[in-house]
Amino acid sequence: MQMLFGSSVGKKIAMAATGLILVLFVIVHLIGNTSIFAGPDGINAYAAALHSMGPIVWLFRLVMLAVFLLHIWLGLKLTLENKLARPVGYAQKQNIRTSYAAQIMIYSGLVLLLFTIYHLLHFTVRVTNPEISHFVDAAGRLDVYAMVVLSFQKFFITLTYVIAMVFLLLHLSHGIGSMFQSSGLNNARTLPTIQAAGKWIAIVLLVGYIAIPISIFVGIVKL
C-alpha cells in the first residue's frame, strides 16, 4: 500500500485504475437508466431486480463510493504535490497542449462529488423529495418511473442534472485520455487517437444522460 501511494507515479497509476472503474460504472449506469424509455414496467422491473439482490447491491454501492472517494483524494494529493513542487509561480505561464477541461479537472471532480451526494439523497436514500419517492406500481414494486418523471418535471431538478452532466463531459473528455497517459499505455503516435476517443465517449455519455431529464421535462416521457 505504501509503495502504491507513496510516490507520484504510484498515485497516478492508482488514479488511472480508479478512474477506469468509475468510467465503466458510468457506462453501465447509463445503460440501466435508459430502461425508462421502455415505460414504467421497464425501469420498475430493472429497479426491482437490483433490490432483489439485497445486501449485494449495497455492498457494491459502498465499494463504488470508496473508489470514488479514493479517486478524488488522489486527485487532491497530486494537485497539492504539483503546487508544492513549484511554490513560486511562473513569471509568465504558457499552457502548452492543454485544454479548459484539463485546467479545471480538480474543480469538475469536486462538483461531481457534490452532485453524487445529491443524487444518492434524491433517488437512492429518497429524502430530498419524500412526497414522490414512495409510490408503488400495480405489481407492488417501487414506482421508480413515477418518481423519476415527477422529479424531472421540475425545472430546477432538471437543470441541476443537466449542469452536472456538462461537468461530467468536461471531466471525462480529459480524464479518459489522461488515464492512458498516467498508466504509460500511450505514446506520441497514439495520443491524438486516445484523446479523440475520450472526447467522443464523453459526448455520447452526456447525450445519453441528459436525454432522460430533458425528454421528461419537454413531455416526451410522461406518466
TrEMBL record:
- Which keywords does this chain's UniProt record carry? Membrane, Transmembrane, Transmembrane helix
Which domain of life does the protein's organism represent? Bacteria
InterPro entries from the UniProt entry: Cytochrome_b-558, SQR/QFR_C/D
Q: Which residues cross the membrane?
A: 12-38, 58-80, 100-121, 155-180, 200-221
The record's section on CDD domains has: SQR_TypeB_2_TM
What is the official name of this protein in its record? Succinate dehydrogenase cytochrome b subunit
